[in-house]
Amino acid sequence: MKSERTPLRPEMAVSIDDRPARHLFRHAAEACRARQDLDVHGYAHLRPEDFAARALGEDGGRAFEALRASWDRLPPDSYMNDGGRYRRRRHAVFAVQGGDVWQLPYRPHFQSRAYNALNGGIYRRYAEIEPGIIDNPVLQNCLRAALDSLDSPDAGNCWFVEAHQFRIIARPGEEGRPTPEGVHRDGVERVFMALMTRDNVGGGLSRIYGADGELLQELCLERPLEAMLVDDVAVRHGVTPIRVLDPAREGVRDMLVITARRAAADPNLPSFEGNRSQ
Hints:
The protein is α+β, with helices and mostly antiparallel strands. It has helices at residues 33-41, 48-56, 62-69, 131-134, 137-148; strands spanning 22-26, 43-46, 87-97, 100-103, 109-110, 123-124, 158-170, 190-199, 201-203, 205-209, 215-220, 227-231, 236-239, 242-244, 251-262.
């Protein structure tokens, strides 16, 4: 007899606080050209002319401007072991199962030192992404785009998803480092990276490397909602430092990063009873 799967229930999520999981939306995966590029190359470049209309939705630019403004409210990242003052950050966690997308009660971010030799090996508790920003339709459309790159996210598989808001700041005489850990993998299966704002900075080149260290692609995300998808199992990635162009003021590079991995693949993840056969 074919086993049945129990739908993910809010009380099934293990976390560090007592809030219930919150259902955000139901998602039906769409075929996308980016998935084909991922399968062939290990990465996909989402140009604004291809992606922005979907991300902006019917609202046009109002929701996007509200989303971008939230980067001005990011607190400093206090876990920078290089002593850097150049990164600000917020974070949120989600689960996806059977097409249902849930925001989970907050849990800290964790990477082993195998994936992040600079800041890994500890649980890092960041300020959570603001509730109004979680509900922003542009952020949710970016989340949908990330989910479309997964293997059947609406077919019973369970995924653990994290969203990160990053602001990297460059100052006169002080560069900002988008990936201070260097060329790396994140220890997940998919990484979605979308540019929100790029102002008064040079550098910040996104580079993709094969498993053998060969440089496969180098490009600069320059326009709002220009994005990349990366198969984190197949390739490694990194971003070069940014520097100010006009020394009279700071420069910033604001990114939304969404990662996904199967919930059953890592014992550190929340326990989803719905992912087990009955």
